[in-house]
Amino acid sequence: MAKLVECIPNFSEGRNQEIIDGLVATAKSVPGVTLLDYSSDQSHNRSVFTLVGDEESIQEGAFQLVKYASEKIDMTKHTGEHPRMGATDVLPFVPVKDISMEECVQLAKKVAERINKELAIPVFLYEEAASRPERQNLAKVRKGQFEGMPEKLLEEDWAPDFGERKIHPTAGVTAVGARMPLVAFNVNLDTDNLEIANKIAKIIRGSGGGYKYCKAIGVMLEGRNIAQVSMNMVNLEKCSLYRTFETIRFEAKRYGVSIIGSEIVGLAPAKALVDVAEYYLQLEEFDYSKQVLENHLLG
Amino acid sequence: MAKLVECIPNFSEGRNQEIIDGLVATAKSVPGVTLLDYSSDQSHNRSVFTLVGDEESIQEGAFQLVKYASEKIDMTKHTGEHPRMGATDVLPFVPVKDISMEECVQLAKKVAERINKELAIPVFLYEEAASRPERQNLAKVRKGQFEGMPEKLLEEDWAPDFGERKIHPTAGVTAVGARMPLVAFNVNLDTDNLEIANKIAKIIRGSGGGYKYCKAIGVMLEGRNIAQVSMNMVNLEKCSLYRTFETIRFEAKRYGVSIIGSEIVGLAPAKALVDVAEYYLQLEEFDYSKQVLENHLLG
Fold first, then answer.
1. Formiminotransferase C-terminal subdomain domain: which residues (chains A, B) (predicted)?
2. Cα(A136)–Cα(A125) distance, rounded to whole angstroms?
């Protein structure tokens, strides 16, 4: 079985179609890499790509994209709402199939080293690949953004993991990391009271004392006039979708509110949903890797 | 995306390890075909293989196996509990990915024609590939078994779909067909009363007025001393696992009995389980083919 790795580079360009097309062409030009999805946001001036490939190909694909972005995107001219510090702003690798997190960390470090060596872009390692705890959190690493980076790199604690204490003049700084697959999971309530969704979000999320691997906020769906608990599930092995769903159900009951539906935004690994089926059907001794037909079909 | 087809040939040999090994070697020798699983039963004297491959390769793989079986298995010497009429007894094709049932029917007919032309084995088409309604049911086609076939083929209604009214002297007759994927799904009850499982099975199965695409019987799990509703779900598009599960739950309530667990025997397509998750999470507008990561990974 081939080891499969996902890579989700974020580029600081969401407006210039020529450059976006160039990134797409670059992604498609690397053998063994499949471009699953990409989307650009005008107001953020940012594009998010989702690639998948075997262990070797994904490294080559990621590097070629970072190279292309460094040649075409000039951060000294970049404006946009989303925080950013580099032409390729972040480059996370995610284990998909038959590969461990530790292997993804090693692979992230190899790509990070090559980016610095061949393109002279300083690199921070983040999340699971971080070299120290305070660098796990991307927001902390990126604080100061592109404009503040020349100064930040000179601070005692902020020498890059690869490269010197000096930004690339136009491509800035890149964060390279490894993380678990993430699922965006939203649960809709039969209330127009945002306060209730906010209270439930606070209870359910790790930062509020809830599930460690769940991030949550309350949001209002204006078009439907209903409140929603909007979640990022960041470790589906440690916290499955059914668990937050059932918790939201019993917490909402206190307000006389029920769940009227849910949604998954973007991609989800099949296992995240099969885990849910296993729970509700009370399946005994189900072996995901052996009993799901498709697991025998992936190269 | 490559079209993927499953093929589940049943061979009338479950005792001679040399012949079984030869079948395995033959299955593995055809490029583009993957042998997912095989099992042999001594008392049935029968082996069931599960292969998968693209549209062209699976035809070649199926044919080569039928050819090997016709050379090695002598039906005049075959004994075993399971009904059978040929060296390759049945050869069903199942659509797995990006292929319609109609395409599987066409493919089954092509393989059937080749089997007759090159190996001189008469072939009946069955299930979705059947040439007339009374040939859909395999049990009816196979009635009379190997020993009764010479006579049966001479009956007015039983001319083979391919070939003359004369069995292959040692390989007999083969049934080639197309059908939907099938899932073996068993639900365990917290009772030692087999009668209750039998009553629920009767209510739930198509032949008893229940769900058309569900076959069910009550069985006793001797080791655990509990009764089980044992089902074959033969069309998961038309009847999902959660539907029979919830029906068993409310029917069992009448006897004060609850569900204590369930099991899936063998392989299940991921979609069968994702459908279950969609139901229980009340997912709105979930697009299986686009939103499940793995669906982008299959060649």
1. 181-296
2. 8
